[in-house]
Amino acid sequence: MQMLNQLRNNHNNNKNNNKLKKSHILLIGSLLIFCGVFSLSWNYLVKMRDAIYSEMKIAMMDDVPLNTNESHPTTSENENVNNTQEPEYHEIDFSKYLGVLEIPKIGLKRGFYNVGSRYNNISYNVAMADGSDLPDVINGNLILMAHSGDSYISYFAYLYKLTIGDMTYITYAGNKYTYQITNIYEVEKNGVVKLIRNHDKTTLTLITCTKDNDYTQTVYIAERVG
Q1: Taking all residues of the chain, what is their mean pLDDT, rounded to a whole number?
Q2: Which stretch of DSSP H or E encloses residue 172?
Q3: 153 and 147 in contact (C-beta within 8 Å)?
Q4: Partner of 156 for a Cys bridge, out of 36, 136, 146, 172, CB 3.0 to 4.6 A?
Q5: Contact at 8 Å (CB) between 181 and 192?
Q6: Tell me, which fold does domain 80-224 have in CATH?
Q7: Can you tell me the distance from the alpha carbon of 60 to that of 54, in angstroms, rounded to the nearest whole number?
């Protein structure tokens, strides 16, 4: 009789253990499903937030004057350019900008502000580096910087598609200037960029992070041809 009771108890314990295991499996499965749904929802919400944030920046820029007297970090064209800033995607009234950069090959058309403007920063726009010359300065060098990558401020995301011989354009003060890319090279990402150009040529320099390389930046040198 005692043996029979013990067998019954063992059987009941096994049933309880099986029920407990099933409960644990259901709980873990539910948690995994919840985590998956939360992750997908979070990514969607982050994208929505970024889009809204971008629109807010664009709306703010509509009321910004072309020039301001705010200070801007200094860099010298002494062939070194500080590149510690950060960019906005959207077409707004180009008349509000100092100038407009166009690269038809990659479908890029972006305005840029004067160095003295607080919106001359790659957190908002394509930015003009201190020490730059305007396009009408003979043998000068206009230096523009922007982010690459896949964020809404990555205006130079497709510069990597450019090759020597491609055309770029700058519209400034009612005139459109034509440049042709003559050199493309990479430099170490250390806060400064060495500029290699012909000082007997009027030049446009574009600087951005190298695609698929966290340790270098790519410099595109274009010489004016029209």
Answers
A1: 76
A2: strand 167-172
A3: yes
A4: 146
A5: no
A6: Sortase; Chain: A; (2.40.260)
A7: 10
Q: What does the H/E/C string look like for 39-106?
A: HHHHHHHHHHHHHHHHHHHHHHHCCCCCCCCCCCCCCCCCCEEECCCCCCCCCCCHHHCCEEEEEHHH
Q: What is the pTM of this model?
A: 0.62
Share of the chain above pLDDT 70, in %: 60
- Greatest C-alpha distance within the chain: 110
- The residue among 142 and 8 whose pLDDT is bigger is 142
Six-digit token string for 111: 């305005």
Domains of the chain by residue range: 1-61, 80-224
pLDDT digits (tens, 9 = 90+) for 97-146: 999 999 999 999 999 999 989 999 998 899 999 999 999 999 999 999 99
Under 8 Å between Cβ of 197 and 203: yes
Nearest to 110 by CA among 124, 126, 121, 95: 126
Check: CB of residue 196 under 8 Å from CB of residue 221: yes
Mean pLDDT, to the nearest integer, of 66-87?
A: 38
Taking the C-alpha atoms of residue 114 and residue 59, their distance in angstroms, rounded to an integer, is 19
Please, are residues 121 and 192 in contact by the beta-carbon 8 Å criterion?
A: no
